[in-house]
Amino acid sequence: LISIWGSGRKEYSAMKFVIFTISGSALMLVGILSLFFSTGTFDMTALPAAIQAGALVLPAGLIFTLLFVGFAIKLPVWPLHTWLPDAHTDAPTAGSVMLAGCWA
Q1: pTM of the entire structure?
Q2: Residues 48-57: what's their mean pLDDT?
Q3: Contact assessment for residue 54 and residue 38, using Cβ atoms and an 8 Å cutoff
Q4: Are 60 and 53 in contact (CB under 8 A)?
């Protein structure tokens, strides 16, 4: 929506949004998959016991950092929020409403 119907630096804003979104999603994916491959479950009630019982594929601090930074990019939390002002100002009204409803 931004790159086709946007205004201003629409290509720059759309590419910045895509890069930030993909990088945040990749970090979250690595964190979530490392938890699964370490514990063998996605069950939130069983995860604490499984983490304490077995060895993690990655250190727990690194898994936390991957998940935290991934969610901070997607949320967007300062200082990882720089994609949001560009996306909102250059998006058409419908795109800005979708960004506000889905990401912010």
Answers
A1: 0.79
A2: 81
A3: yes
A4: no
